[in-house]
Amino acid sequence: MKKQTLIIASLFVLVLLFVGGSYLYKNANHSVSAEKSAALVRPYAYVLGNPNAKTTIVEFFDPACGTCKSFYPFVKNILKQNPDTLKLVLRYAPFHTDSYYIVAMIEAARLQGKYIEALEVIYKYQDKWASHGTPNIGLIWGFLPEAGIDIDQLKEDLKKPEIDALIKQDISDTKTLGVNATPEFFVNGKPLIKFGKQELEDLIKSEL
Q1: For 76-112, what is each residue's pLDDT tens digit?
Q2: Which of 37, 68, 81, 188 is most buried, most CB within 10 Å of its CB?
Q3: 71/78 Cα distance (integer angstroms)
Q4: What confidence tens digit (pLDDT) does each residue in 110-161 have?
């Protein structure tokens, strides 16, 4: 009888340790280390929302990524609901074939003040130019005028070395931070441990 009681008590302690450990892990500070924090936000990165907001979402995205397209309106809506306290910093992780060139197009459009317009029209027609995992970036040229972009100027701006340098820095930062899939989110330096829209919203709310 004493042996059975001891076994039950031991099992109870193990359960408590497991539950307690899970709780501590879930609530632990998984923030990016101080040495790597500079890789999260660069001065040149495009910012949506209040630049002085206390809560910062950093998203590493790829314009050819279907999940990135799906998350874009979701995150934009959260920004709309928290206009004073939340901002989104957009970073590049061009992992798909030819995404590097598409990212360069977005940055060149930015020089015309058309960053968001370019990004949104590229997402809008993603199913056409990135169909079945075989992107045809030549099609994008036909969609960009819808965003009010001067195509001749865009082609000239694509030659600017600062665009290439910016993208290479973002790629370097993905390696520093261990980003290997898109979209990848950080909220006030904390990575999204379990991926999902609800999980992202919960993490954002915990930092507001």
Answers
A1: 999 999 999 999 999 999 999 899 999 999 999 999 9
A2: 68
A3: 11
A4: 999 999 999 999 999 999 999 876 789 999 999 999 999 999 999 999 999 9
C-beta separation of 169 from 93 below 8 A: no
| Phi, psi (rounded to 5 degrees) for 165 | -65, -40
What is the sign, positive or negative, of the torsion defined by CA atoms of 123, 203, 27, 174? positive
Around Cβ 91, how many Cβ atoms within 10 Å?
24
pLDDT band at 20 (very low <50, low <70, confident <90, very high): very low
Pseudo-torsion of CA 10, 15, 19, 20, nearest 10°?
Answer: 0
What six digits make up the tokens of 47?
Answer: 């910012």
Structure token pair of residue 57: 């979402």
Is the Cβ–Cβ distance between 85 and 142 less than 8 Å? no
Dist CA 116 CA 120 (whole Å): 6
Query: What's the token pair of residue 79?
Result: 């920004």
Its pTM stands at 0.84
